């Protein structure tokens, strides 16, 4: 089993100096127009400084109408380049790989946020989303690829395609949400076509050493585990991406589908041949024991979310002290401020049940 501090080479781009990456995390700190704020800059660069081998942005939307939440980072226009360039340069200056996660919320874009009906693979009565035309799907692919090129121009080492969590690419993978009759609907192969075309576009139009990752959800969101396993098998075998990031919610959990509970959810992916593609996961990886267990069970690297919120220097602390024990939740808002979170992100974290202590009220 590799050590957490053993470097990990990628087929393209710089190697990870350790097996610890910052997961892409919603933080609500960008400006209204999607440009980078000082608070978001501090939040991300503080993790790079803290020793994470790969520092990934939050989901950054590739179209204006793809915005999924307030204060979201944008990568759809050249007006975002100054902030993105500053961010990439500083992350890399700390010896961390700089990555933008490319995102479009699809039917999960709030109408009140984008000022029009959201879009989706097919009409959706529940959200009021309208189905995209074939030409609009082609434009969606183009905008994902264009956002990758913009990230490259800004100096990032690579991008990750967000195909998880029932955002638009994940919606295409769903047989229930995607009821199209053109080449982007029907069979599992057709429903995955949009992702494959984005991968091909990034590969053909970005430099040869530009790294490319893909995030997938293996279940929930009207997905079938075996369909996602097959897609994972294909992208691993094709070798056009450099890493596959599986969002598991809990690295130790069994699948929801009782028919496939003879192994953990993670186990349905670690046995797949992966060639030169690396396999990582996220999901309640809080302690050094959790991270090592993921490597023991076949992962190449891990992505830390909540753990990285609690300790900007989680990797450095573990490197200095093998007995490092992360702080328990709930934590104080002051602790989060000290860890580089701005006011908007602290307020957001207070909506996470049990994560932040309730403020004390004086007795009457």
Characterization of this structure:
The protein is of the alpha/beta class and 364 residues long. The protein folds into 2 domains: 20-326, Aldolase class I (TIM Barrel, Alpha-Beta Barrel); 328-364, no CATH class. Helices cover 34% and strands 13% of the residues. The protein contains 14 helices and 10 strands. The strands form 2 sheets. It has an 8-stranded parallel barrel, surrounded by 6 helices. The chain has a two-stranded parallel sheet with strand order 4-5. Strand 2 (54-61), helix 2 (81-93) and strand 3 (97-103) form a beta-alpha-beta unit. It is globular.
Could you give the topology of this structure?
Elements: E1 20-22, H1 38-49, E2 54-61, H2 81-93, E3 97-103, H3 111-114, E4 119-120, E5 130-131, H4 134-153, E6 158-163, H5 168-173, H6 188-191, H7 193-205, E7 211-216, H8 225-238, E8 243-247, H9 267-270, E9 278-282, H10 288-296, E10 301-304, H11 306-310, H12 314-320, H13 333-338, H14 343-349
Parallel strand pairs: 1-2, 1-10, 2-3, 3-6, 4-5, 6-7, 7-8, 8-9, 9-10
Helix pairs in contact: 1-2, 4-7
Write a brief structural summary.
With 364 residues, this protein is an alpha/beta fold.
> Rg, please?
20 Å
**Total helical elements:** 14
Overall SS class:
alpha/beta
**Integer average pLDDT:** 97
What do we call the CATH topology of the largest domain?
TIM Barrel
In the predicted model, the low-confidence regions spanning at least 5 consecutive residues are: none
Taking the sheet with the most strands, its summary is: 8 strands, parallel, barrel
**How far is it from the N-terminal to the C-terminal residue, by CA?**
58 Å
Helix content: 25-40%
Which outline best applies?
A: globular
The secondary-structure element order is EHEHEHEEHEHHHEHEHEHEHHHH
